[in-house]
Amino acid sequence: MDFRFTAQEEQFRGEVRAFLEQEWAPFAEEAEAEREGLIHHQRFAEQLAAKGWLTMAWPREYGGMGAGYIQQTIFREEVAYFRAPDGGQGPRMVGPMLILHGNQEQKARFLPAIARAQQFWCQGYSEPGAGSDLASLQCRATRDGDDYVLNGQKTWTSNAHKADWIHVIARTDPEAPKHRGISYFLVDMKTPGVSFRPIVNMAGGAGFAETFFEDVRVPARNLVGEENRGWYVATTTLDFERSAINYPAEGRRTLDELLAYVSTQPQAKAGPAVRTALAELSIEVDVARWLAYRVAFMQASGQVPNYEASMAKVFGTEMQQRLANTAINLLGLHGQLRRGTSWTPVRGYLEFKYQWQVAPTIFAGTSEIQRNIIANRGLGLPRGN
User: Which of 1, 116, 175, 223 is most buried (most C-beta within 10 Å)?
Assistant: First the structure.
């Protein structure tokens, strides 16, 4: 497979990079400026929407540019390198899912608002007892006239504190086999009975939350697809989450920052062990990038990636863990300092990354799940008993 970009594609990359250099500032990385950071993210999303980049791969009739997979991959790669927001789950997951599975009324209600960056979404999938085995979920939705009544709990809800809407899967037939009897709903976060509680992670952030539904009335028109067939809608949505180009892109940014820091430290710069470790990491970042490109080029040629996406995800996230571990050790004791002091190297980002980087190997399908997919679907190995 020849991963070469055309002159037009490279020109587009340069345009995106120039825009990010001018318009995106690292201000929003500061956790202590949460309220202002949210405003900053919203303004940036509106700028992307104005340029048509927020939903560039959507069909034109739904507010997109009809761009191909390669152009979209280039855009996401550059955005990830600059650690800028890409608009969240609305443009990336909910919109494409509605284009495939939503009815005309749902498309008219939600797609224009998502394309204009006027609606922010979060996801209600995982539960305390249903993570990797997602089909074991117990959140219930019971039909009552023109509504469904939703009761249950979700966990690891990313950015629940920002979201206007949440896309939720819930059990509508408790007697059916676990992959059946599940339905897919769109729920307004302001609906009475919806509440959330932040989960503070070990890095000090509170981007995740537990979300609770207590007798939440959801209009039946907010059911996506058929009742009891929501599992198949959900798996489509998960496919949009696994392109994996963000991992090598952000990894390259981290490696560039680490190299710049090490170059100012004579004792580290002179060590052959340090140079070898950095060279190996550079190779790993490149391997992760090629695996992600493979997924994009397969999609562009009309193929449907499966285990290939799992390979890109598991290698990319574990590469990021190895990068963070090497970085924190190279920084020495100063690497433990959080942002906010003059002694903190690389603005404290590597200390944060070291703690945070466990999470990506878990969300969107754990490394164990990804390896099962690779073994079963890629290598043809039998399933274990």
Answer: 223
